[in-house]
Amino acid sequence: MRQVISKALWRASLVASTMLASPVMAQQRPTEPAPTAEGANAAAGRAGATAPDATVQGAVAQDVAPAQAEPQRDVVVTGSRIISSGFTAPTPTQVLSYEAITKNAQPNIFTTVAQLPSLQGSTGASVGANGTSTGVQGLSTLSLRGLQPIRTLTLIDGQRVVGANVTGVADVSLFPQLLIERVDVVTGGASASYGSDAVGGVVNFITNTRFEGFRANAQTGISTYGDDHNYTFQAALGRAFMQDRLHVILSGEYSHEDGIPSAGFGVGNSPDGDGPNGRDWLVARGVLNRGITRDGLPQYLYRDHVQSTLFGRFGLINSGPLQGTAFDGNGNPVPFRYGTECVPGSCVGGDLSGSVANGNSLKSAIGRLNTYGRVGFDIDPNNEIYGTFNVAEVKTSNTPNPGFAQDNLTIQCSNPFVPAAVQAACAANGITSFRFGTVNPMFDFIDVNTRRRQYRFVGGAKGKVAVFGTDWRYDAYYQHGTEITDINVSNIALMPRYRAAVQAVRGPNGVITCADPIAVANGCSPLNVFGNVTPSDATRDYITPPNGPFQHTRQTQDVAGLSVSGETFDLPAGPLAVALGSEFRHEFYRVNADPYGNGVNVAGSAYGADYPADPLLSKGGGNWYAGNYRNGGGGYDVLEAFLELNAPIINSQEFGRANLNVAGRATNYSTSGTVYTWKIGGTFDTAIDGFRLRAVTSRDIRAPNLSELFAAPVTSNRTGTIDPFNNNRSITVLQTTTGNPNLKPEIARNTELGMVLSRPSWLPGLSLSFDYFKIDIRNAISALDAQTQINLCFGGVSFTCGSFDLSNLDSAYVTVQPFNFASIKTDGFDIEGSYRTELDGIGLPGRFTVRALATHTMNFIQDTGLPNTIPKQLAGTNIEATAVPHWKLLATQDYSTDLFSFTLQERWFSAGVLSNENIVCSTNCPVSTVNHPTYDYNRVPGAFYLDVSTSYKFTPHISGYFKIDNLLNRDAETVPGNITTPTLYDVVGRAFRLGFRANF
């Protein structure tokens, strides 16, 4: 009988919550039982078994005063650790319901969450697709407020997750997605409640820990261009045993997305564009640097169809008396077409067939395999012990570029591969060598394959016990997580061998061989770089050996935590609620790399059977064209304790109801000592019908992560840069990234002020909210990119001058290292509105819901604090990886009946600029400077996307659905230097998905 009653109450709670749910965001009222992670036990009144953050109040509806006729219920808010009847936290919390997740019908729940306007700068399969060794390929991480994923804390059921990258960020692709009942997004600082990393906020994935029955989902999809084919299979099974005391849940899922592969050389250079599979929006867009700063004209020119004039597809002599001699596919000399508008190193138009900048994968291929299980046993109706496991794997692959361009090769005129006509021209001009550039089309495209495996285990106990006549709730758990990441790069060159193979001579026997006898003795086979002559197997294996760059990373995270919550004594307006607890955490990583990239520690030692010793290769490492990984490791411990109080201040019919919420946390890091965080906030339910005010201010922190502290120097990739010290020549440099053990924690001050109108008696289906936010981060940890460091040094900032050396083109490098610079400041506001109504009043079945969420970022100011620099205003810049447009909007309109639903969804962000510091002019331009360069164009368009979905229930347990994303096939925009901004623009285009769900 108890089980029957429990299930009946659970169904009743679902009905109540459905009355308030929406396709975008479900709103939970403090007077209603939530469709929580605990499912049946919460609805059955077993609040003692509820985790401290298992239920949450919506960003609007969490602030509604409970109706007097309804019974008070315990409500737990992710932004707080307090568990108390009628409690409402001052921090706004957005909630994605299970209904919203299923109607969005994405292969990865990450995409659904990342569409919320408050989330900006999240990474995904289309971000980092042009990186060789960044480690973010296909990494699904969430970022609030554009502050990067490292400043957003992502949890599962209120618990930390082992990082999927040495930066410590969690990969949502590794989560058990079918059992996620709700996603809580706390849009403000929460370090006092949850510790480090919660500077931008918290994203908490709540699973259904009391799931019973069978649930399945099968889905397939494809883009309108015939690529990015994807399919997903998910199933979950839950059973209760031993008179509903033992609960067992198992789930598994597999998902695969083909991605959008490289389209090869010369992409985006036809008059109408020629992106992958007909995406005509992709053009070779770039910025020409005239190098002239004070002639009244802009220094930088924004142009389409820009190509380097330092290399050609099949080879180009790029300096000296033979400059302009190109080669066709057969290696014959032909005149190079330079185009109509040229600056040193670049032209507009002309022969653009060798362009590599737009030839990377637009979207990585990604495959996900996930298994999850939970066993819970009720010691009594109020206390439970449990254990969970999550074993998952994600594989991604991408092409960072279609070739490995070289623009500074010195070729001897006597090289036997040099055509006779060119040899004759050398003699006629009295030269013995020339500078040469090629994209090496004779080799296969570089391929980066990443495999992440996660093993996560949690054991714990939670419930409530009576102490001095009141109930006190507790939650104790231990979590161990292991993340193993393998990165393998193929079809990539060992540069010392490549340079040796290029220098060919004819031997005494007339056979062409490598010029260096040491190289010959170690297997060198010559390479013909003129034209597109297929190299021999010996040459290919010598330059691009099968055992390419490799990195194996093992990360571990151990967490033990205990928290308790209860009500102490009565104040005039109600009981004083208390939450307190402590947590210990150990983070560790170790990375091992191949010896060609890492180097050999013992001088003269062999590399091993798989990596034969070669005297041409540097034993210090850094031999690959890109992907020069290094061995490294490190770890730290964290010990912390927190206390939170909620004090009712006013509780009357005449004046309303108000409460004061305060919290503090002390955190000790083994690397940087002890820091303190706190928050002070409150809510005020006014006497005005349905109107509430809320405010909170907090001190939050982010400690440096494992990568920032301990990363060994990694020569990760070759980056195209401009050398202002030498007439703005275009050069390629090795970019080396390294850690900084002297980093200190960031300190942030968060402030939020809001007002809410929810379910007024004169229009009970209406909810509106407005929240202002301001975040000020001091001692912010970040690094300057290679070009910025060079430019600052050229502009007189000596701090960056020691980080690079451009004197030798063969070994030019820039070292990138994080440091505590001055500050990051951002402010703006969130607006949310919804209206829901039943349609029986007009004679129609079902209900209609309209909802919109918008975020307006007024300022996002980054200040390095370096001399001769100025703060940069990034709000409204739409080209950075962490682009923060001024406006971002998400809206839905949904009509649903018991059998059918139809949903429209609109996504929009506002137009922006290349940089707010640019000065736009065409004539009479001021002097162009590093801080305020002059441009002739500075606009990046916004975009509007329309999605449509429908579903139909064929039987009480089987339903089908159909979804079209980007119905109007709105193109992405090409932006200079970045191809596009995938954190904003949809690179896939119109996409179709069809699926079926089963619920028994």
UniProtKB/TrEMBL annotation:
Domain TonB-dependent receptor plug, chain residue ranges per copy: 89-202
Q: Where is this region: Disordered?
A: 26-54
**Keyword terms of this UniProt record:** Cell outer membrane, Membrane, Receptor, Signal, TonB box, Transmembrane, Transmembrane beta strand, Transport
The residue ranges crossing the membrane are: none
Q: Residue ranges of the TonB-dependent receptor-like beta-barrel domain?
A: 546-967
Check the record and name the Pfam families matching this protein: Plug, TonB_dep_Rec_b-barrel
Q: Which domain of life is it from?
A: Bacteria
Q: Known InterPro entries for this protein?
A: Beta-barrel_TonB, Beta-barrel_TonB_sf, Plug_dom, Plug_dom_sf, TonB-dep_rcpt-like
User: How far does the signal peptide extend, from start to end residue?
Assistant: 1-26
Q: Where does it primarily localize?
A: membrane
Q: Which SUPFAM superfamilies match?
A: Porins (SSF56935)
The protein's topology relative to the membrane is:
Multi-pass membrane protein
* Residue ranges with Low complexity bias: 30-54
* GO cellular component annotations of the record: cell outer membrane
Which cellular compartments is it found in? Answer: Cell outer membrane
PANTHER family given in the database record: PTHR47234, SECRETIN_TONB SHORT N-TERMINAL DOMAIN-CONTAINING PROTEIN
The record's comment on protein family reads: Belongs to the TonB-dependent receptor family.
> Would you tell me the protein name for this molecule?
TonB-dependent Receptor Plug Domain
Q: Which organism is it from?
A: Sphingomonas gellani
